[in-house]
Amino acid sequence: MRVITGSARGRRLGELKGQETRPTTGKVKEGIFSAIQFELEDARVLDLFAGTGQMGIEALSRGARSCVFIDRRADAAKLVRDNLAVCGLTERAQVVCGDAMAYLAAQRTRFDLIFLDPPYADDSLERALTRIAGFDISAPYGIIVAECPADKALPALSVPYRLRREYRYGRIKVAVYRRDGEEEETNG
């Protein structure tokens, strides 16, 4: 697993042992970053369920201002810190070892880009999407990128959030949600 492009281009990232973490494949990661490439410059990013941290690291490498990485596993949080150090991106990152839902409930910062790639076996994705919209932590025109099994039905979110597009990569689906701007909320 490597960083595709940007300041850390080509750097090899460490991976977690075992089957508990499922890193995003290179093909899916390339597709995601092609879809959001013009949204990265100076973005505030949240990598929820970070795992190896590769999505947030790729965003930082491509010009994002900062990234907060959240994972409940101590070994994953340590690996994210190690991967950030290898890429020279530590100063623009914060790594939190803790529960994603508790983090969302306590969050008051608004993010321009949020990556969601939780374990497929439970309802973490649906709960995270609902809480992000409920707590409204996405900045105006912010993007939420959610990865899940291709056959999973994702919830419709309330205004100002809208599902903009879904991409399929074999058995993987990537849903891109976007938050409307403030003027769209007041006008309609």
Quick recap:
This protein is α/β, with parallel strands linked by helices and 188 residues long. It contains six helices and seven strands; from the N terminus they run αβαβαβαβαβββα.
What is the topological layout?
Layout: H1 26-36, E1 44-48, H2 54-61, E2 66-71, H3 74-87, E3 93-97, H4 100-106, E4 111-116, H5 124-135, E5 138-149, E6 161-169, E7 172-179, H6 182-187
Parallel strand pairs: 1-2, 1-4, 2-3, 4-5
Antiparallel strand pairs: 5-7, 6-7
Description of the structure:
The chain is of the alpha/beta class. The protein has one domain (26-152, 164-182): Vaccinia Virus protein VP39 (Rossmann fold, 3-Layer(aba) Sandwich). Helices cover 31% and strands 27% of the residues. The chain has six helices and seven strands, in the order H-E-H-E-H-E-H-E-H-E-E-E-H. The chain has a seven-stranded mixed beta sheet with strand order 3-2-1-4-5-7-6, with helices on both faces. The longest helix is centred in the middle third of the chain and has 14 residues, at 74-87. It is globular and about 40 Å long. The mean pLDDT is 91.
